[in-house]
TrEMBL record:
It comes from the Bacteria. The chain crosses the membrane at residues 12-32, 79-102, 109-130, 136-156, 163-183, 203-226, 238-258, 293-313, 325-342, 357-376, 383-403, 409-427, 434-457, 813-835. Keywords: Membrane, Transmembrane, Transmembrane helix. This is Membrane protein YfhO. InterPro entries: Uncharacterised_YfhO. Pfam families: YfhO.
Amino acid sequence: MRRGPGARIRRQWPVLAAAVAAGLTFVISGVIRGTYPFGDGPRSTNDLGQQFVPMYAHYRDMLTGQGVGDLFFNWSSGFGVPFLGDFMAYVGSTLSWIVLLFPRDHIDLALFLVDVFAIGIAAGAMTAYLRRLRPGPAWIAAVAGISYGACGWAIDDAAYMSVWLNGLIAFPIICLLCEWILSRRSAVSLLVSPLVIALLWTSHFYTVYMATIGAAIVVAARILAYDASVSWRHRLTGAVRCIIAVGLGIGLAAPLLLPTFRIVQAARPSPDVAFRPIGAIDFLARLLPGSEGVGATPGLAVGTVLLLLVVSFPFNRAVPGRERIVWTVTVALTMLSMQVDFTHDVWHGFDTPNGSQYRQAFVVAGLLVIVGWMSAASGLRTALAVAAPVGVVLVLYVVTWNVRTTTTTTRVVVPLLIVISVAAWLASRRPDRFRGLAVAILVGAVIAEVSVSSAAIDAQRSKILSAKAPWGEQHTAIRGLVESASDWPMHRAAPGADQTVNDPMLIGGEGPQYYSSTIPDRVSQQLLDLGFGYSSYGRATIDPQNPVIDVAFAIRHRVVVGDDEVPKLERYDSAPLVTVRPAKPFLSRDPGPFGVQETALGADVYTIPKVLGEKDPEVSVSDRRGGLTIAPTAGAVLPLETRLHATCAPGSEVWFAAPIYVGDVLVDGHHWVTNLDPKAKSPGIYSGAPMLRVGTAGADGKVEVQLRLSARTKLPSSPIGCLHRDRLEAAATQLGASKVSAVTVGGHSIHVRLQPGEAAAVVIAVVRIDGWRCSVDGKASRNPSARGGLLAVAVPAGASDVSCAYRPVGARMGLAVGAIALLGLMLVAAALLVLRRRAAGRQGW
């Protein structure tokens, strides 16, 4: 008799209960901490505030037609950058549609709900997988799902990197799909699975790649653990079916994956990092709930109850011996693989990350939950299966008492949950009236432990990582100013960087600021060459607010927030976004960023004077190897002040460019500005200072730049530039007179109508990167050239139309691979249909 929908729903109550409870624990932890949206405490830690919230805001603008750009290109940030890589790396979650349910000023709430739902879905998916894997008490399956969904990695590492939670979701779902294929050799399982795999891989390819490896480990363990009654032919054909389904799924995702891989390859590289495994005690300490070690240690905790069940597994004789051996070895080897160089590289796609070097920890947490479930589902029937794990966990508890990742919460909840767990086991052996109460108490204790552990992790992490405030009055005020100054696509309106490094996406407008792991290296290097500052190895840019850059890149308005915290809108005389310039390019001979700016502008506006150090017995200055080295002499009192001397034209602006100088600079003769903070890690690699306006040359033309330093430092050989405003104004006027009739900007294209004239070059104020193709008067498209890094198109005399479009490199190959995968799926469907008809024919005969 077929079961109705009500029966099916009742059968799935553990899945729904686990999903709701896991999400609820995350909510409760926020209530305990008093963080947004339950209090004044900021929740947007680190990248959540700096990257995810702004990118979700931009994504919402893209979907609602309120922004500039589309899935391929983002006109708002970095003077124009690709968006597909950011979408796949930060936004491309199956839950990102949630942003459409809220107004724009509630993006922070949308991200909070993305985390809540992702944790809940992961918990529900794991519960569903466990119940398909082996029959057992439904409430234990729900507890196991909760323990996985809110595991240490999910709260400590992924909750503020929201898109990582897609890996947490993917692992049990891929395991569930392969279990479906292994247990039921049906056409439906083999045809549906690739579609789900494709969806998962486009949600977040990075962590889903790790989840796929984890699922392969699970499938291998399942095949090896089958009893002798299952033939090896049956096992291997099942494995091949899983491989085909996963392979086709990844192929179907190729139209997005391959362009993303090419974008990642072209992104700003970070310095090579050598993986250094941590000590065994520090590693094992993260098995305990409430432990916190974001970025440095793996979040393996799955709660005290599941940890006890995991340790009971090797001692539980109710589990067949073959399974105990296979799964115990599997878990041990997988944990060991996190500490071995080669397997560490495999886990991370042969690219060791600079932070959070145990990003695959959620897979191990999943394996622990699976093993714990198999032990619980088989029943704990002997005292050894209960006493042994209690003893082992207590030893671990004592040994890790003073480990830096252990929190007060850890010290309280572990012994308490051990007592409750043992009491529940004893009660389960008593009459039925005690069992229900014991189960209720144990489930309540697990939920409470997960909630307080999550709060403890967040509290400890907040001492290390800073957080951004949610949308408030300041955001609204700045956005209002930007919207009032909107002149796109003629000019840009820059919102500044008062709230985040990604304010152009968060607030709106079209500014130079941009922070992303997928920033094209060419864009990053071009901005640095122009005098931009940077952090995170050049992946985040800092606007120098330089008038030459403003003219060259069409910044007409900028929001500036002063010491009074009141945002103000400044207006500049700027060239338009598209200019027509002489056919022969101007090439500056000035050194450093001053010359790069002039080449981008197409005019000579700086004078670069010879710089001399001050003669001081406490300071030695040497001009060797292409730079000025300034060093305090022995016995000098630090910090000490010294001066650089130069001569500029009277009235010219003095700019100082020294990206790796750690110290202060006196600006306008009355206030000190930090050029680069002493806390900056490895100046020149981790961070660099933007060029800085330090004053105006007096009537005599003599310039003194006063420095305050605490250690030996090196400056460029020409760190000072004298800007002639009259020349800059003339250049801006000339560029503003360009023969451009109209400019139309699409999502990833730009169309320019010209007044016919002599041969020239159309220059678009966008950094030229691979992927742009341009055509003149409808002729064949070709790769554009670059002028000072800007996109340039040579046009013959009489030309009237220029069109350029950006297409991610690898898009065609991705479409081809996707088409092949789709064809392969159709062929598999046809083959299965033929085999099914043949089998039916034989049965009829």
